Amino acid sequence: MLFDLNEDTKVNEIYKLMAQTIIPRPIAWVVTEDEGVVNIAPFSYFIGLSSEPASVLISVGHKPDGTPKDTLANIRKHQKCTICMVEEKDLEKMHLSSKGLVHEESEAKVFNIETIQENTDFPPRIATAPVAYYCELNQEIDLGGGSTIPLILNVHKMFVNDEVITDQERLTIAFNPVARIGKSYAFLGDEIEAPMIP
Questions:
Q1: Which residues, given as ranges, of the chain have pLDDT below 70?
Q2: Which of 20, 126, 137, 147 could be stapled to 79 by a disulfide with Cβ–Cβ 3.0 to 4.6 Å?
Q3: In a domain, 6, yes or no
Q4: Contact between 144 and 101 (Cβ < 8 Å)
């Protein structure tokens, strides 16, 4: 079946088609702040873009009433966020943090998500996250319509828990991130070594 995404396919159908075929997508658990309120929300439209400069991309939508989600509003206002990777032990709290709260409520408090403020230039990181990226907004991308806003973020600092560094000399890191597959979550299975190139 061929779907024409420009003509006869509804936005929610396009999301379903893409979300179930671009898989797995790691989840960016994004921490932002505004006037002392720590906002935490997961986003599965998340990729690494470049290592020079170090940069990632997340896509953030709007609330049902058309206003920007708190993550988008906070990044626009303060230009900063902290992206944390999610492991299985935090799956439930991560999923709960996707629930829409009023701007003055903090997911950290409501869902008992512990954070650590180790870098005062950026929002805190989630204490149990194996990896965190301290990011600054580079630019928004105008896709010419729609309510989803892709944000390019420059990564200025990166936290990696010592426990997931398996080889200090080679800087080898191993952890089990949570990924999104359609409406479900998944964990990475067995690793397969790449074949040797002759």
A1: 1-5, 7-9, 19-23, 189-192, 198
A2: 137
A3: no
A4: no
133 vs 136: CA distance, rounded Å: 10
How is residue 87 annotated by DSSP?
B
Say which CATH number the domain at 49 has.
2.30.110.10
Q: Is 108 contained in some domain?
A: yes
Compute the distance between CA of residue 59 and CA of residue 124 in angstroms, rounded to an integer. Answer: 21
Q: Are 97 and 30 in contact (CB under 8 A)?
A: no
What's residue 139's pLDDT?
Answer: 97
Query: Omega before 24 cis (within 30°)?
Result: yes
Per-residue pLDDT, 192: 65
Residue 197 resides in a domain:
no
pLDDT of res. 22: 67
User: Which domain, by its residues, includes 36?
Assistant: 11-186
Look at strands 28-34 and 80-84 and give their pairing.
antiparallel
Q: Give just the sign of the alpha carbon dihedral 11, 17, 23, 24.
A: positive
What residues are paired with 15 via a beta bridge? none
